[in-house]
Automatic annotation (TrEMBL):
One of its GO terms (biological process) is DNA biosynthetic process. PROSITE patterns: RT_POL. Pfam families: RVT_1. PANTHER family: REVERSE TRANSCRIPTASES. This is Reverse transcriptase domain-containing protein. It comes from Euphydryas editha. SUPFAM superfamilies: DNA/RNA polymerases (SSF56672). Residues 152-291 form the Reverse transcriptase domain.
């Protein structure tokens, strides 16, 4: 095995050396030398200042962070409840004690380890800089502590406030003016422990929604074994049936702006124990803008 690794390394070095020797600045090699140098030192576009109201410009990192924070605080607001809605009654029901309901399935150390392995290796960590690699190196005692903590969270329906703090990085939208605040989309980096608990909770929430028939049959999004092509096939069948019966077939396509920011957190009331924990997860999020 050692000899094989050495042979592979020597072959790689020989390939790289031959590739470097073939680089020239002439047209015969399509100016490969200049292209290689350009890729080694890519030009960085300077970040322009952000235009605020009037002729005020945000130039420093702190000013840009404040501008983004103000913008996000205005757009990430839930819709106001209607006077005749049942939201107040549902909120009152969710705040009651549910002693007569079955508790959530207990989290086991084996489930925690399995869920850690399912986390994405390429995901950036949150503000605490803990990523999947750190969790993979945890000893058995730490896994047991995490398991106990998760079970306590489910039992008390209280999500840790610190795990709701997200570090927000603004990504420029292609083709949009870079000096406008609205030309950037936020990427929220949550702590990996929060993502770990969310995956465990989602597994129980999905099972409860399936058992209580909460999700309608015509919904294909966020459901396992429900691909987009199957939804297209269902729509095509509806159109074909309408044409065969010589009936009108109308369809409405909605593109809701900032749908996730304005989601109604109490929309799944039938699974109360799970939703109590989920509503705790969705409420009182804090963001740390990064300039």
């Amino acid at each position: 095995m050692k000899l094989l690794k050495q042979t592979i390394k020597e072959t790689e070095n020989a390939t790289i050396e031959a590739s470097l020797l073939s680089l020239t600045a002439t047209a015969s090699t399509d100016y490969a030398l200049w292209k290689a140098c350009k890729n080694m030192n890519p030009t960085r576009n300077p970040k322009p200042p952000l235009r605020l109201h009037g002729n005020i410009w945000a130039r420093s990192k702190q000013e840009k962070a404040d501008a983004f924070a103000l913008h996000l605080s205005k757009v990430s607001l839930p819709n106001e409840p209607k006077p005749d809605s049942d939201e107040a009654d549902i909120a009152e029901i969710l705040q009651r004690d549910h002693q007569l309901e079955l508790p959530l399935k207990t989290v086991t150390p084996r489930e925690v380890i399995r869920t850690i392995k399912q986390l994405d290796n390429n995901k950036a960590p949150g503000f605490d800089l803990i990523d999947k690699k750190v969790l993979m190196e945890l000893p058995q005692k730490a896994i047991i502590y995490l398991t106990t903590l998760f079970n306590c969270i489910f039992r008390r329906s209280c999500f840790p406030a610190l795990w709701k703090v997200s570090q927000v990085i603004m990504i420029h939208k292609p083709g949009k003016p870079p000096h406008e605040v609205t030309s950037y989309r936020p990427i929220s980096l949550l702590p990996v422990l929060s993502k770990l608990l969310e995956k465990i909770l989602l597994r129980r929430l999905s099972l409860a929604m399936l058992e209580n028939s909460v999700t309608p049959n015509h919904q294909f999004g966020f459901r396992p074994e429900h691909a987009t092509i199957e939804q297209i096939d269902r729509v095509c069948k509806c159109i074909s049936n309408s044409l065969e019966q010589k009936e009108y077939c109308s369809s409405v396509f909605l593109d809701v702006q900032q749908a996730f920011d304005r989601v109604w957190p109490l929309c799944q009331a039938p699974v109360q124990n799970q939703i109590t924990t989920a509503s705790q997860l969705l409420s009182n999020h804090r963001i740390l803008p990064q300039g």
